[in-house]
Amino acid sequence: MGSYLVRLCVYVISFMLSFWALSAVRFEQLCDVRKPGKVQLLLLLMALALGYLVGQFLFSITYYM
After folding, report:
1. Using CA atoms, how far apart are residues 64 and 4, in angstroms rounded to an integer?
2. What's the predicted TM-score (pTM) here?
3. Structural domain total, the chain
4. Half-sphere exposure of 14 (CA within 13 A, CB side)
5. Range of the domain at 23
6. Which of 7, 14, 22, 60 could crosslink 54 through cysteines, CB 3.0-4.6 Å?
7. How far apart are CA 63 and CA 65, in angstroms?
8. Strands (E), the chain
């Protein structure tokens, strides 16, 4: 039970950090400005994917050390 809570916390923290880091990128210059909802959805999905990858990376490092 405790390991699930730790994994959840690591995923949430890595998602928040990746969302914070990706918010510095100006996606409005890359995408159509008339549709801000799609740009925000792109930011959210990229933050989720990056947060998952960072969490998996951290777990794989701690497993082998």
Report:
1. 19
2. 0.82
3. 1
4. 19
5. 2-64
6. 14
7. 6
8. none
